[in-house]
DNA sequence: CATGAATGAGACTTCATTCAT
DNA sequence: CATGAATGAAGTCTCATTCAT
């Protein structure tokens, strides 16, 4: 995935500038949308000329690629840790949601891009991993919900598939309004969100 | 004469072809994103040449404009009817959510566009009504939630603003997966969704 | 030169509308320039749709053609009358200038178009008569000036060719500011102009 | 960086290529008219592709802008020098005319463009300076002529306003036929022209 | 005679990308 | 590493023109 033109330097000497530019690019992509973002805008923000970006990256596409695959790689490391812990359904959902909001906290821009551009990009062969990830995603969440229903932890009268969609979307869309360092910590947001989804907003009678 | 200075929303005798094209355009915009959609793609889908679109519309921009303002106009007619009925907080939320899903059913494409492109477009003066609408939107939902808390219908331990965001997003994001004529009627989806949000997915103990 | 699609009506029944439209077109061409004038603008001014113009005329080009050839036809009728009268050089110049300003008074728009678009249009085969006219033009004026020098009516120390150019341009450029029905009659303008060119603006010492 | 927000007239270190292209563009604009000149034609003449022009310039419009404002800037520097010298009316007219023909000699293309396109372009806000310049222009010439009449240097029986128009037009229209390096130097043309305007072409009796 | 709708060529412009320096 | 200049494909839009009704 790294640039093919790059000198074969060892990982010991990490190209500082590279990830710096990537972070800038992510921010701009998130703010303006991938298509609407010109390579020049990224370069401007990075303090260089458009052409100079091509020393570091193959193409605009490979920038988002790196941004998204980086984010998904990290996300799955956390998700897998949760899933491998074989907690109960409710606790699994809680952990997944919490990790999701933490990821939004760490990689807000990447998540926003993922949320907005996933569908377009998935059409390109190079981004097949987006679809793969979504499949795994669905399996994990849907499976947990179903397990919860089977174990009488979640209500049986709900359409599991529908519930999955609601939950999935709400978590990720949060990336569009979340601002790191704001009033709420990711854990606090997760708690509030879980409270709503698990127990409802209505007062119990 | 059909072009230039035509009121974007209404017309005494709506030229058949116009709304036909608009529906097609909405579909393509929703599927590919506004920026990524070329005028030629719309024309192709409408069975005409790109240039011919400009007999009916001033610009690509004015097409989305008409799509979005049409959708918002209709939406607010329904919302206002609900709000004017002065129901209780829970019933108001139920009615708003139901109307929202109905609107998704009727104007899926428009809602999807609204969801995805709102932020970019709102930067243009011509689309200021998007921001205005969002403000009214927030006032209506937030107000109802707050009233519910005051009247002990909704839980007091939830952050109302956060809850508003969760609810708002989830409803509209549904436009990205909803397919009219699918398994669930909008009313059924609303019921499921309300059940989750109001009472939670966890089994009561 | 008339439209080939026109019903073969006799000249006895002159198509009123035709010359009406032509006058409007001339006005717009003069104001905006031939290239910058769209066929729709002419149609607007004539109270019809762009397509409808093509019932009366073959093309935008044939409109200017008719405007210019009509103007030049009339102009040469007058010029020829003057030249055939075989006046003295000074009187000939006076008469030509006077007729020119009269023509500007009658066909201001056509003259302005001639002045501005002549060069472009002359490149097209159909407008060769523009070049022909200019040649005849030069012959008439230059000849008169030379005759005047030979007969000691005009100063011998002036470059005749240069003088011709100055005189020619000044007369026609007047079309760009002249407004029929203004303060000065064409004859008055001609008198002022001739006074300047023939006797100079300096006080004689 | 050469693009966007660059002062249209001056630059400390004028990029070679830029003014080269500008000179070519001026030539083409003058020959074919601004509207009729395609950006591709300019690019062809400059030996590049149409799109490449946009590295140097914002738009076709900003090219004429730079051409015209450059020309007017230089012209006014000369005119101001003349006016500040506070010569007599006749000498002032002589100096202004001479400077004008010199300017035509230096910037023939720009003058021709100014002459032909001034009116259209002045409608655009960006070209308001054209109107401003024309106002100053009128003030300078008209004022000098009036002073001349008051001082009995110019004939009192001439309409000053009309004379101003004749003189103004004739000088500038010369740009449409003048060829630098031709038979006559600008000074020679000015002398001939002044001789005609000041003393007339008729032999004194 | 005129309308309404469309065509098709071509205009200006944008932008990712390349490459010599 | 970065710049400056250019490429070439593609995009939005304009406009003269046509034609069935």
TrEMBL record, chains A, B, C, D:
The DNA-binding region ranges are: 38-57
User: Is Metal-binding one of the keywords?
Assistant: no
Q: Which Pfam families match?
A: TetR_C_24 (PF17932), TetR_N (PF00440)
Residues annotated as domain HTH tetR-type:
15-75
Q: InterPro entries under this entry? A: Homeodomain-like_sf, HTH-type_TetR-like_transc_reg, HTH_TetR, KstR2_TetR_C, Tet_transcr_reg_TetR-rel_C_sf
**Which keywords does the record carry?**
DNA-binding, Repressor, Transcription, Transcription regulation
Indicate yes or no for the key word Transcription regulation. Answer: yes
Q: SUPFAM superfamilies recorded for this chain?
A: Homeodomain-like, Tetracyclin repressor-like, C-terminal domain
- Family annotation (Gene3D superfamilies): Homeodomain-like, Tetracycline Repressor, domain 2
Name of the protein in its database record: TetR/AcrR family transcriptional regulator
